[in-house]
Amino acid sequence: TAKNATTRYGETPELALAEELAESIRVALCEGKETAFHFLFRRGDTFALFHINGLSGLSHRYPAVVGSYGTGALPRFTKKPAISRKMRFLALQNIEIAPPDGEEFGIIDAEFIIFDGILAKCEVQASRVGNAIRGITWRRIINLDAFKSAPGTTSTETDGKVTWALHGNRTSGFYATGADGLLIEKVLCDHAGWADGYAYDCRADFPHPPSMYSQGMYLQYSINDLTVRDVIVTRASSIAIQQRSGGITERVLMVGNNGGLLTAGEIGAEDGNFSYVSDLWVTQGGMKATEKEASLYLAGGVDAAAPLTTLDAVVVAHRGAMPPP
Hints:
This protein has about 325 residues and is mainly beta. The chain is built from 1 helix and 26 strands. The strands form 4 sheets. Strands 2, 3, 5, 6, 8, 9, 11, 12, 14, 18, 20, 22, 24 and 26 form a 14-stranded parallel beta sheet that branches. A hairpin with a 5-residue loop joins β15 and β16. The N and C termini lie far apart (about 75 Å).
């Protein structure tokens, strides 16, 4: 307890802990344990030491929490979070996640995790690698600028020119596979899979070029119980939402993407699962082209490749691939 005070350090804004001490508490008292600690970080500050990793709550009713207090910009975390195995009952709320350029933020084999009010300036991947990933809520999210600052892999053309390896550098705003119970709600996903100023011939000394391998959201066929609701996807490299899992998609706006919505199944088995799509608006084709594998489309609308798809109240209203006169 602080001298002449009735509260302990870390219990009020006036007695906030240093970031180094908060990280020490996380490691000593929380990592790998079910503790339901609440860590609140001051708005307007940047945090480079605290690692969002190893935190679990006690139950749905008593989760562990990483959030914010005060006024101003969201607290900014520059260390890549690791939401991984054995983490469960965790809520991340009103924070910014901004790892180093080109690094993705992974959610692997975790259970009952809520992301609410997050600003994510990176690719986000939710994946089942071993056990299970279930009960993931991705809500009130702004997902911006998911692209690579430099190529991870390159290709050398016959004329000796070094270019971006488009498949090897594929980047989507949000990618999910193997999840059981995934809610994507009130999300803005903007500018995924490419960077301004790219070269038409995809030269490696220019920014990240668009390709058909990078989407706004890529939702794999192995997801069960998917709902996408009240979402805006803009300026994706290729398709705004590639939905191979089936599920419910409603009240979605897609603007400036090379393609709108694709419903399908596993690649090579396109029947897919039942998809219900309602209140969808696709407009303003992206028209982002390169000379290499640019996109499945330049101004695509809805591709219901899976025959088990119902479309209700869908509008596609944009110009074709040719520029206006």
